[in-house]
Write a structure and sequence with these properties.
The complex is a heterodimer of chains A (about 425) and B (about 475). Chain A has about 425 residues and is of the alpha+beta class. Chain A folds into four domains: about 90 residues, Uridine Diphospho-n-acetylenolpyruvylglucosamine Reductase, domain 2 (2-Layer Sandwich); about 120 residues, Uridine Diphospho-n-acetylenolpyruvylglucosamine Reductase, domain 3; about 80 residues, Alpha-Beta Plaits (2-Layer Sandwich), CATH 3.30.70; about 80 residues, 2-Layer Sandwich (Alpha-Beta Plaits). Chain A contains 13 helices and 19 strands. Chain A has an eight-stranded antiparallel β-sheet. Chain A has a five-stranded antiparallel β-sheet with strand order 5-6-10-8-9. Chain A has a four-stranded mixed β-sheet with strand order 1-2-4-3. In chain A, a hairpin with a 4-residue loop joins strand 5 and strand 6. The two termini of chain A are about 25 Å apart. Chain B has five domains: about 90 residues, Uridine Diphospho-n-acetylenolpyruvylglucosamine Reductase, domain 2 (2-Layer Sandwich); about 120 residues, Uridine Diphospho-n-acetylenolpyruvylglucosamine Reductase, domain 3 (2-Layer Sandwich); about 110 residues, Alpha-Beta Plaits, CATH 3.30.70.2190; about 90 residues, Alpha-Beta Plaits; about 55 residues, no CATH class. In chain B, the strands form four sheets. Chain B has a seven-stranded antiparallel β-sheet, with helices on both faces. In chain B, strand 5 and strand 6 form a beta hairpin. Chain B is globular and about 70 Å long. Chain B starts with a helix and ends in a 7-residue tail after the last helix. The chains are: A alpha+beta (about 425), B alpha+beta (about 475). Chains A and B meet through strand 9, helix 7, strand 11, helix 9 and helix 13 of A and strand 9, helix 7, helix 8, helix 10 and helix 16 of B.
């Protein structure tokens, strides 16, 4: 039911008739259906849309590829989805500078495709296909390669954003090294569309490694997994990633090494040698490598990487106590990120999440729901409470979006 | 608050030995590494603990007194320039390394800890702290954090912001927050730490800092190559990057710099139009192969001489020459003005040409020493302060160099910061909206703008909040800011 005055004709005239449509059930965000979906084709159009939205008090959810719309609590209100997918151009790419500037609606795989001709890449590898670059930034989505390259916050060097009222601002630059002004690129990274709409972004790039090998060790216990990860971290192998895959079938710790062809042999050999004390070692082919865990509930636990054995131990113990049979556990083992895929009763999952929070938030980590049915979210919340900085992030939100017009309610602390 | 009462309040926190109020002593704090600007602070305080800092800041907040934090005072943009009628909070007594956590590759330090101490502390374990500004034997981690310091090895390893994982921060209202996950990644909420690093002391004071340490590479190889001119050397740089090689460092020095360095520290560099230092590190097999490729690329670009560092001693000598470059200018000129602008790497050629034209036009010599891998130039404008008008001409020339860099798609500053020195240039790089939006962040952290006021932004704006504990902002009173 429409209660607000939505300026249909004006919105249409900004983006053109065919880029404005009524929302369908598929556009719902965690159960809440917006009225309309608009697809601006430029920064200027985005700005004009937001100006109108602010004028008429419309609540907006920015959307890229839609691969992370399940992340976060349900929005308190929603009128418009502003989809960035028409803004899908590479603005500038100079291979010699190892920098690319893109519009935010371009798909990550399209960027990679564009760069691969010059043997370069944007060194992030979130598992979702179809994610846009803006979405990857907004969700701070990451994958195994983060151990070597960091997350997108370490690669972003410039940004253009459109605020709730249409104000357009940029920060950073297109040079890798720059300290002029505040680093708003990082502030917007992981802000989940609650501070503004990301319109363009600039990134530093890396050369695509010439050769890669994946070595895995079959571990018997959480202890062995923890020690194996430590052995790799303390080595000079410079692994690209160290991944955990622990399920009913597998108990693997895998390491990806990359280098020039002659270098990769030496690295793989050293990695195998280091892993041998912890179990049977074998090489994996590319398609054997673990992805995100299956399960309708996925819990993300972050903790100091040296506590991997403890993280695993507490997960297994809690799952067993709650009759959550065989959780699927994956993770970026050397980075301190673990995902737990659960299938079972809501009651049990809720207890599991609460128990993990009791343990790991107290020990300096965090426990968030990456994916969960609404009922579970309503019960335990997507986020734990953060820390003593909660008041500060609320003040940041108030300054950037004083009217609460962007994704209200979805983020930490009800922001 | 009267000065005497303020001194009393600070002494009650720190004891009399922690408060400097004598004019003569205060003068030693009137500037940082950039000596063009000088302001004598009203008071200098020397806290020894995080609690001291918190109580000092709280007092300042309640009394509406602006404060400036200072580490070792080596900054080159006037970021630690005191403010008049303000308190200078010097953190050099907070020098404890609090924790070394090898399994998690973290070190926790107080802000006054000197950069190089961190690497020394973990060297035996086979680790080091990667960001290595040339000032690393004196500059503090707190200062590095405030400026987001770079260094010669940040091409491969990133900047301070990529190595600070957590911080305890005293906010400008005296409250304490812990931002960034520290040992755990992906702390929920906004990336406040990412926004805080490089904010030049305008958002608060870090009192405890968690750093990432990096495993020492298996192999390090360094060479020095001499070229006819910077253009030829630039071709070698492009060739190396084009091959997909990411060296740990690529540094270039031009003829004038080589001359100065030779007089100052005699590293025995070849007499050439330009010299490159290239360093590779990583696993043995990879480094060996890529090093051969780098040598070949340098030869093809026309290198007249290539010296490979045969041992750690020779490598250290190469770096000694490079790191002495700024100081060495004193041997060939009375005064010099350092610039820190950045250009996209592929624009280095045209920009260097432009700099040489500008140098001729103004009749002043410019020495070039720079991080060639990431396009961060450090043109050193040489002048004589005693010659009438030269200082002004030098500043004008330096400004024109900055504009040339911006015209070629670059930045005002790569690692030294905006501070006091370059804030006047900010509108050349950013629109009013850009700067206003940046200052929204300032308003969230420091609504009364008492933390290092007047830096970074040419026109500070107030935050539209009713002044809490005090009526009118000192800057507003003085007529230099407007209500936001």
């Amino acid at each position: 039911m429409q209660t607000k005055n939505i300026p249909l004709e004006e919105l249409k005239s900004v983006v053109g008739e065919k880029h404005f449509r009524e929302a369908t059930a598929e556009d719902a965000v965690e159960g809440l259906e917006p009225s309309f979906v608009v697809e601006p084709g430029s920064v200027e159009e985005t700005s004009e849309l937001m100006r109108l939205a602010a004028r008429d008090g419309l609540v907006v959810a920015p959307r890229g590829g839609g691969t992370k719309m399940h992340l976060g609590d349900p929005p308190r209100e929603l009128d418009l989805i502003v989809s960035t997918t028409r803004m899908d151009e590479v603005i500038e790419y100079v291979p010699g500078d190892q920098v690319v500037r893109v519009q935010s609606g371009i798909k990550l795989e399209d960027v990679q495709e564009h760069l691969s001709g010059s043997n370069q890449m944007l060194a992030v590898d979130p598992p979702e296909r179809g994610a846009t670059v803006g979405g990857v930034v907004a969700a701070n989505a990451s994958g195994p390669r983060r151990f070597r390259y960091g997350t997108i916050r370490d690669l972003i060097i410039g940004i253009t954003v459109v605020l709730h009222d249409g104000t357009v601002a940029k920060a950073g630059s297109k040079v890798v090294k720059n300290v002029a002004g505040y680093d708003l690129s990082k502030l917007f990274t992981g802000s989940l569309g609650t501070l503004g709409i990301i319109a363009t972004a600039n990134f530093r790039l890396h050369p695509i490694p010439e050769a890669s090998r994946t070595v895995a060790v079959e571990v018997e216990s959480p202890q062995a997994a923890g020690e194996a990860a430590q052995a790799l971290m303390r080595s000079q192998v410079e692994p690209t990633s160290v991944e955990l895959d622990w399920s009913e079938e597998n108990r693997l710790l895998t390491v990806l090494v990359e280098s020039i062809p002659s270098g990769v042999e030496a690295k793989a050999e050293t990695a195998s040698f280091l892993l041998r004390p912890f179990g049977e070692v074998r090489e994996l082919s590319d398609d054997e490598q673990p992805g995100p865990p299956p399960g309708e509930v996925v819990v993300k636990i972050t903790a100091p990487p040296a506590e991997l054995a403890d993280v695993l131990g507490t997960i297994l113990a809690a799952a067993e106590r709650r009759d959550l049979a065989h959780p699927n556990i994956t993770g970026h083992a050397a980075s301190g990120v673990t995902f737990v895929g659960l299938s079972g009763e809501e009651e049990a999952s809720a207890h599991f999440v609460n128990e993990m929070r009791e343990i790991w938030v107290r020990r300096g980590g965090s426990v968030t729901l990456q994916r969960a049915p609404l009922a579970l979210k309503n019960r335990v919340g997507t986020w734990d409470n953060g820390g003593d900085y909660l008041g500060l992030i609320r003040r940041v939100k108030e300054k950037f979006d004083p009217r609460g017009g962007l994704n209200p309610g979805r983020f930490v602390g009800g922001i | 608050m009267e000065r005497d009462r303020l001194i009393g309040a600070m002494e009650s926190i720190l004891g009399s030995e922690g408060v400097i109020s004598e004019r003569e002593q205060l003068r030693s704090y009137e500037c940082d590494g950039l000596m063009n600007y000088r302001v004598v602070p009203d008071l200098v305080v020397l806290p020894e603990t995080a609690e001291h800092v918190q109580r000092i800041v709280k007092t300042c907040f309640e009394e509406g007194i602006p404060f400036v934090a200072r580490g070792s005072g080596t900054g080159l943009s006037g970021g630690a320039l005191p403010v008049e009628s303000g308190v200078l909070i010097v953190l050099s007594r907070m020098r404890k390394i609090l924790e070394v956590d090898i399994p998690n590759q973290r070190v926790v330090v107080e802000p006054g800890v000197i950069n190089v101490w961190v690497s020394q502390e973990v060297a035996d374990e086979g680790y080091y702290y990667a960001p290595d500004p040339a000032s690393q034997i004196v500059s503090s981690i707190g200062g590095n954090l405030a400026e987001n310091s770079g260094g010669v090895h940040c091409l491969k390893y990133g900047f301070t912001t990529n190595h600070v994982m957590g911080a305890e921060v005293v906010l400008p209202d005296g409250s304490v927050v812990h931002i960034g996950g520290g040992r755990s990644p992906d702390a929920p909420g906004y990336d406040l730490l990412g926004a805080f690093v490089g904010s030049e002391g305008t958002l608060g004071i870090a009192t405890k800092i968690t750093l990432r340490i990096v495993r020492k590479p298996e192999s390090v190889r360094t060479l020095l190559a001499a070229f006819k001119d910077t253009e030829e050397a630039g071709e070698a740089v492009s060739g190396i990057i084009g091959e997909g090689i990411v060296p740990a460092a690529i540094e270039m020095m031009d003829a004038l710099t080589i001359e100065a360095v030779e007089v100052a520290v005699s590293p025995g560099f070849p007499q050439a139009g330009a010299v490159l230092i290239v360093e590779l590190d990583g696993p043995e097999a990879e480094v060996a192969d890529q090093f051969e490729r780098v040598i070949k690329i340098c030869e093809e670009a026309g290198a007249s001489e290539i010296r490979v560092a045969e041992d750690e001693q020779e490598r250290a000598l190469f770096w000694k020459g490079r790191k002495a470059a700024f100081g060495a200018m004193g041997r060939i000129a009375n005064d010099y003005y350092v610039q820190d602008s950045v250009v996209p790497r592929t624009e280095l050629g045209p920009v260097l040409k432009k700099i040489s034209e500008l140098s001729e036009k103004h009749g002043l010599r410019v020495a070039n020493v720079f991080h060639a891998g990431d396009g961060n130039l450090h043109p050193l404008v040489l002048y004589d302060n005693d010659a009438p008008g030269e200082a002004e001409r030098a500043e004008e020339l330096a400004g024109e160099i900055v504009f040339a860099c911006l015209e070629h798609g670059g930045s005002l500053t790569g690692e030294h910061g905006i501070g006091e020195d370059k804030k006047k240039y900010m509108p050349k790089m950013f629109t009013t909206d850009d700067m206003n939006v940046m200052q929204l962040l300032r308003c969230a952290f420091d609504p009364h703008q008492i933390s290092n006021p007047g830096k970074i932004f040419p026109t500070p704006r107030l935050c539209g909040e009713r002044p809490g504990p005090f009526r009118m902002h000192p800057l507003q009173k003085a007529g230099i800011v407007e209500q936001f």
